[in-house]
Amino acid sequence: MGLWNFAKTVGAKLFGASEAQAADADTLKKEAAKHGLDMSGVDVKVEGDKVVLSGKAVSTEELEKIMLAVGNTTGIAQVESNVAVTKSSAESRTYEVKKGDTLWKISEEMYGKGKGGQYNVIFEANKPMLSHPDKIYPGQVLRVPPL
């Protein structure tokens, strides 16, 4: 899975975290679990503004969602994954939301002209972190799975 970059000045504001300091490993695990993600086989280590994940995840999709859940928090600039997955599938691309973006616009950019209607694929790929297609914010990192 490698290394994903995040904007450390935006995202969920977790207890004990700030732009200068990431939340501790237990708090990040709770954040991912809050979204219904299975953290039972995943170890979390915080190294400054970088999170290193290791262990085993159920699927590529689950691992990517875990990376987003911990990465889209204040104080995290990078998430590195050394996690093995039980059920492997094609990896998603990531997209950092810019001011003025909509999921339709992102879909057009990532999937090609005339594919804006596929925005729901991106929305579904980012649930439960996204609760509504219109609730995205600049700096947020999203999963963009292949069509």
What does this structure look like?
It is a single chain. The chain is of the alpha+beta class and 147 residues long. Helix content is 26%, strand content 26%. The chain has four helices and six strands. Strands 1-4-3-2 form a four-stranded mixed sheet, with helices on one face. Helix 2 (60-71) links the parallel strand 3 (50-59) and strand 4.
Give the topology, please.
Blueprint (H helix, E strand, L loop, with lengths): L1 E4 L19 H10 L7 E6 L2 E10 H12 L6 E10 L5 E4 L6 H9 L7 H7 L15 E4 L3
Parallel strand pairs: 3-4
Antiparallel strand pairs: 1-4, 2-3, 5-6
* Tally of strands: 6
The largest pleated sheet is described as: 4 strands, mixed
How much of the sequence lies in strands comes to 25-35%
Q: Radius of gyration over alpha carbons?
A: 15 Å
Could you say how many structural domains there are in total? 2
Shape, principal axes of CA atoms: globular
Report how far the terminal alpha carbons are from each other. 19 Å
Task: Bin the helical content.
Answer: 25-40%
CATH topology of the largest domain: Histidine-containing Protein, Chain: A
Helix count from the secondary structure assignment: 4
Name the average pLDDT. Answer: 95
The first-level CATH class of the largest domain is given as Alpha Beta
Low-confidence stretches: none
Q: What pattern of helices and strands is seen along the backbone? A: EHEEHEEHHE
Category from helices, strands and their pairing: alpha+beta
Q: What is the level-2 CATH architecture name of the largest domain?
A: 2-Layer Sandwich
Strand numbers in spatial order across the main sheet:
1-4-3-2
